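Translate structure to sequence.
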């Protein structure tokens, strides 16, 4: 392992340091790997896409620079994103998903003057102090030392459990700052979560609570739109990013007219700035990426969604035919292999069913890497537009061999 001086997660024990990427592949030590991460779901067009590279050439040619000041590229992007997500009256540009969630919570806190976050179990909101907690067996614990918040400012409701969620909400509704949820969760991408999301929307509306959707991953990946548009739900505030940036770091907060009016009526002073907030370079790349995807969304999403349908159908049939205790779950082109064939409705159930297989799951990941497939550490698979049916068939074949070898091969 090469020496490095980084303390970021992964760098101390990492064996693979990637050097470049093109299309559906990333490279390490001159070896080519089929990338199932796509920068944690960001690169829906693949690595170094044509629109990304042409944007970089334009930036050089037009001498676009970062000014830490007002620029036309942010304004142009805001108009494009308004066409894509028209339910929001204003957008706040940030540098990452973490920053956008953090500032989104700041808005909720300022508007309501309350501090209790209701977070839905299984949701992930980045490196935000207020949300770096989990609950297990009715006990909360932090995921990091040094958090400035404490666990009495966050409570959890169970994903896809309406009855228990309502009980917890009823008990706390006078203290709630917002209900925060990743509507389709990377840890368990379930297509049939609409009923639960509708419940949260109706409950929030009835009790005048802020509903906060974190669509950092699903924004744009849901057939060029969002989960909320897909299911006809209108949260008060949402965060987006990843795919919208096209490879450049980005976070976006959308607020509806009701939140905007409250900010104005109460004359609230909420700080949104930062040196690179709405910076010219990222805004230019994001605007070009979004316009390209919206113009070509029919062929982009019909391709990657048909690949994900094929992947799920082929493997689930294989698992069934061979009595293998596993299944593929998916939402659009976001997929996950769950190492149990039981009905799973939330992250807690998934963890419980998989815990005894964790060692073998790691061996399975190594098998894929040995066969030049990069399987992300968190287990969430993303397909991209650069992939071919040949790639998908190879992936299916290796997974069939790997699952049978690691989990069920007789010694």
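Result:
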């Amino acid at each position: 392992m090469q020496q490095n001086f980084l303390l970021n997660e992964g760098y101390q024990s990492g064996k693979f340091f990637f050097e470049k990427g093109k299309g559906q592949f990333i490279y390490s030590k001159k070896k080519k790997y089929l990338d199932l991460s796509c920068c944690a779901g960001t690169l829906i067009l693949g690595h170094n896409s044509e629109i990304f590279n042409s944007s970089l050439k334009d930036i050089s040619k037009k001498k676009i620079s970062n000014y830490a000041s007002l620029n036309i590229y942010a304004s142009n992007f805001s108009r494009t994103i308004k066409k894509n997500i028209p339910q929001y009256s204003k957008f706040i540009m940030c540098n990452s998903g973490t920053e956008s969630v953090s500032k989104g919570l700041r808005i909720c806190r300022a508007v309501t003057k309350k501090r209790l976050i209701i977070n839905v179990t299984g949701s992930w909101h980045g490196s935000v102090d207020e949300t770096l907690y989990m609950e297990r067996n009715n006990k909360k614990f932090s995921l990091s030392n040094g958090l400035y918040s404490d666990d009495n400012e966050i409570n959890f409701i169970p994903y896809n459990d309406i009855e228990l969620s309502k009980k917890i909400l009823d008990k706390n509704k006078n203290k709630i700052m917002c209900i925060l949820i990743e509507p389709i969760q990377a840890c368990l991408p379930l297509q049939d979560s609409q009923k639960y999301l509708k419940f949260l929307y109706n409950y929030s509306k009835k009790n005048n609570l802020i509903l906060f959707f974190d669509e950092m991953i699903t924004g744009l990946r849901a057939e060029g739109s969002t989960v909320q548009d897909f299911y006809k739900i209108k949260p008060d505030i949402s965060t987006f990013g990843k795919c919208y940036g096209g490879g450049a770091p980005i976070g976006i907060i959308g607020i509806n007219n009701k939140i905007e009016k409250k900010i104005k009526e109460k004359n609230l002073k909420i700080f949104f700035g930062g040196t690179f907030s709405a910076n010219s370079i990222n805004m230019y790349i994001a605007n070009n990426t979004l316009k390209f995807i919206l113009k070509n969304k029919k062929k982009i999403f019909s391709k990657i969604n048909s690949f994900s349908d094929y992947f799920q159908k082929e493997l689930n049939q294989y698992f069934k035919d061979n009595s293998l205790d596993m299944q593929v779950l998916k939402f659009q082109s976001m997929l996950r292999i769950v190492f149990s064939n039981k009905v799973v409705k939330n992250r807690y159930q998934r963890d419980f069913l998989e815990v005894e297989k964790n060692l073998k799951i790691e061996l399975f990941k190594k098998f894929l890497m040995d066969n030049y497939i990069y399987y992300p550490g968190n287990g969430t698979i993303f397909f991209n537009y650069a992939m071919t049916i040949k790639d998908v068939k190879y992936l299916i074949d290796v997974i069939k061999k790997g699952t049978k070898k690691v989990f069920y091969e007789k010694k």
